[in-house]
Protein 1
Amino acid sequence: MLTGSVGKKAKNKPGDVNVVQQIINLRGDLRKKLPKIKEDSKIGPKTQLYIDTIQSHFMKKPDGRIDPFGRTIKKMWPVAYGKPTNRPIRGADKYGSGYHGASRGRRKHDGADYVSRPGQNVKAPLSGVVTKISRPYSSGIDAKILSGVEIIASDGTTCWVWYIKPAAKIVGKVVEAGVSVIGRAKTLKNRYKNGITDHVHVRIHDRNGRKINPAKVIK
């Protein structure tokens, strides 16, 4: 979620500072009576004050610094999961089943397919920050049409959501699982013709690259 430290004696990369500022504005419960802050990507005195104030809620000696995968960022934006389409995992159809581990010939399905309706809003399955536009196909018309996003959580968990049209200016945005709209679902029937159930593909790996079954964390 953060690529470097933010705050006192920190790297303070503009993108990371902006992520922290977004979270500060989203967490009114941590700001208490303090107003929202300007999201200018700069670590000025006001942003530092907010970091110190938020840390004081759960640290006896606030250090004024937020590190990647550290206690403060996890407190500010906890790892959470949510349903992307509010529909079940795809059952068996002409092209197989959508559950994690389903057969794909010589390989296993590395993710889970959540049934979708073309054009419907798709919500973030994981709380984190959208780091980039992700594409399941490298060439052809589908490489442009059937894209998606990558989301990284505060503990380094990474989630890919495919077969959507990403929302405008979504890269760099902090998103909340099951709440934030990340795009709209696209149909798969142009690629797979008849017989496939339209769906959104969700793939999740932990910080070390280990695969996570989406069905075990998205309830």
Protein 2
Amino acid sequence: MTARYPLVAVYADESCLGNGKSGATPGGLGALIEFRRADGTLSRFDLWASEPDTTNNRMALRSVIDTYRAMSRKGNCVSVQFTTDSRYIVDGMTSWVRGWMARGWRRKDGAVENVELWREAVEAIARHETQWVWVKGHAGHPQNEYANHLATRAAAAQDASDGLVASRFDAWMAAQGAAIRSQALSPFPVAERFVPASALPAPSRVRLET
């Protein structure tokens, strides 16, 4: 297979501070977005957002929703290699969601956690094609570590980028220790090796069972 649209590489992560503790659990999401320009140069952009009281799974879903919405603002379609350390997202998008939708957005044994966010996420990716990639978290992967940096910073500061902004990845990378700086960056995806996940049914045509 090959990519049908311009290629984009996304590295996303989420954070939730205070998991398991009493009181509010502020969270954040972060995404590093890479584009290849017509002249062959690579451009990077950052995106981040936060919630005052949330969960890791909610922020993982919002990393998908917010990133795709930001990339869709000009009405373009893109082929996305979406890399995350969240099995919740990768397994959900490649396996669980299709069954939930077939059952009216329900699991075999009950309600789907965060169902409204799952519906928003499926709607956000619908016009694009995506290859979902899992990477082990906190293992020194530079682009994933940077997305984690954006997410944890957003959770602590409780702020948002309000769309794509020029990336600070190069400056962040230069400030890291040898353990991260010695790691090779994940290469930009190749169109001829792009294998998108199967398209999902249109969310608007799936009735939500209550």
Protein 3
Amino acid sequence: MMPFPSLFRRHSRGSAFDAQRAALRTAAEFYPAPLAVAREMLELAEVSADDTVYDLGSGDGRIPILAAQEFGCRAVGIELDPKLCKYTLARIAEYGLQERISLRQENFFEADLRPATVITLYLLGAVNGQLQPRMASHLRSGARVVALEFPVPGWRPERVVPVRSENDVGYTLYLYRRR
């Protein structure tokens, strides 16, 4: 996996730096949200046709595709891995959703999040913590963030909801709303 070099410029080398680099590399690996859990994420955020959903680290595009298909909204997937982007673009075309979904092959730490009304995250807590200042400065009032499994450090969730996957595995969702 490709590291995120811009994150490391301001940090000194040492064991904390190495641990952070390892955590971010792990976060960049593809661990898809189960489909039933992804649907619960979008329902918890009360996604409607008026929303623009951003999925950071969108992997195979299941959340943007689900958002566009079932909730009728616009969606943006942000994914760094070129192979996953190629796969996702093929799925978007297969479902005829090119008008509703855009996919950006870029580093989500540098992405413009201002158009988002909903952000979905299935990233490690350390990564959510790195994203927190960017989300805080970019998100408009009323925007929602739904984090799967790992809360956003420094933010108090509006709701914490346990959910079950298709295979009856338990997960936790954290809903945040920008005031």
Protein 4
Amino acid sequence: MKKLLFTIIALALTGIYTVSAQGFDPPSEGKAVVYFARVTKYGKPTSFEFFHQDKYIGAFKGDQYMRYECDPGEQLFWASSENKEFVTAELEAGKTYVIVVDVIMGAWKARVGLTPLDISDTESWERVKKLVNKRPPTQTPQAKLDKMNKKLEKFIAEKLEMYETTWKNEHNYKHLSADMAIPEEEL
């Protein structure tokens, strides 16, 4: 037992053994990072699924968050529940962004809302910081992401077709602009 403990400590000190930690992690070189944070206590048992363009990127429920790293540039993020909610984004390399996941009363189950965070909204920003600094992000294992992308392939294509042909013209979806990046000194 002592030998196992010594090995784990040695690996951790050398950086080979990685543990997910809470707090804001900067993006990898040439990437941007988006935190999807659900800071409301309302609708805790309802799980929402999240997508980046045509890819399923994870799901979570309750007051949790997900860290998602991607290429900079124009992006489309969306979430699914009783409704489908979209956010367009213009991301800059090396920057960190936050999208607040809202829970909205629905007819059969909770609806999802996505609100890009502007840190001038100090109440929401403080709640996001508290959540991110309190616990590690929710992570969906790669095997599950692969399985769900295959399972939802037709669903994703249908919803993106509806977005392109109808929804983006009928709804005023929110936009996450490059200047909404969280300043490094705030992280």
